[in-house]
Amino acid sequence: MQTIGLIGGMSWESSSAYYEALNTGVQQRLGGLSSARVLLSSVDFAQVTALQEAEDWDAVAGVLVAAAEGVERAGADFLMLATTTFHRVADQVAAAVDLPVVHLADVVAQACLAQGVTSVGFLGTTFAMSRTFFTDRIASHGITVHVPDERHHAELNRIIYEELVAGRVLDSSRRTVVGLISELWDAGAGGVILGCTELESLVRQADSELPLFPCTTLHVAAALDRALG
After folding, report:
1. Which molecular function terms from Gene Ontology are attached (predicted)?
2. What are 135-159's pLDDT values in tens digits?
């Protein structure tokens, strides 16, 4: 079994979901008392969020590179960033270490194509929806990406940062997100990417008539394939 280098803390709720899913996945695949070999470096979410808001991406990259170098020295075989928004600096992190990086956007794009979906909606933080660093990477696989109208961005961001990051899962917010999924369907999406780990605690496949592509679940599955392959 290979050792997974996991850069987390963005948020710790997200990292907790990754850690649980990695270990549950190994136990399901190998049985018995098996668990994942994971080296986790957890950064300060407040620090990197403040740097993000200040558009100081070199400083964000510096924080994540230091974390990546730490798990590399500790013996990780490959690297994952347990975040969507901070994949903004994934290429800088990859360039700084001698480890393969399992890029979330590539994993999700491959999952969409495997189901024959070439037009998808994307839900995530305001930053991830309004910038193109993540959606362009998905589009590079031949997929058309739709995001909600800008008037919805602030509310979705509020749900993520004020509720889900704090572990609060509200039915009213679920209805809001399901409504956004319906709008993306009307816009031509044949599926919807849940582009934020915390959204997976709010919306499930049973809530949507469109196929959902949960980023964390897919990212973990790709990591397990690599670690156990």
Report:
1. amino-acid racemase activity
2. 999 999 999 999 999 999 999 999 9
Closest CA to 124 of 134, 113, 114, 138: 134
- Which CATH number applies to 104-214? 3.40.50.1860
- From the candidates 83, 85, 135, 216, which is the catalytic residue? 83
Q: What is the pLDDT of residues 108-136, one digit of tens each?
A: 999 999 999 999 999 999 989 999 999 99
pLDDT tens digits, one per residue of 158-209? 999 899 988 899 999 999 999 999 999 999 999 999 998 889 989 999 999 9
Q: How far apart are CA 169 and CA 111, in angstroms?
A: 26
Query: Distance between CA 148 and CA 155 in Å, rounded?
Result: 11
Place of tokens 């899962």: 169
Domain boundaries for CATH 3.40.50.1860 within the chain: 4-103+217-228, 104-214
Active-site residue 176, yes or no?
no
pTM, two decimal places: 0.90
Rounded CA-CA distance 210/188 in Å is: 11
Q: List Cα–Cα distances, 111 to 3, 25, 212, in angstroms.
A: 23, 18, 10
Distances (CA, A) of 36 to 15, 16, 115: 14, 14, 28
CATH number of 4-103+217-228: 3.40.50.1860
Given 49, 196, 215, 216, the catalytic residue: 196
Q: What are the residues whose beta carbons fall under 8 Å from the beta carbon of 77, sequence distance 6 or more? A: 2, 3, 4, 5, 99, 227
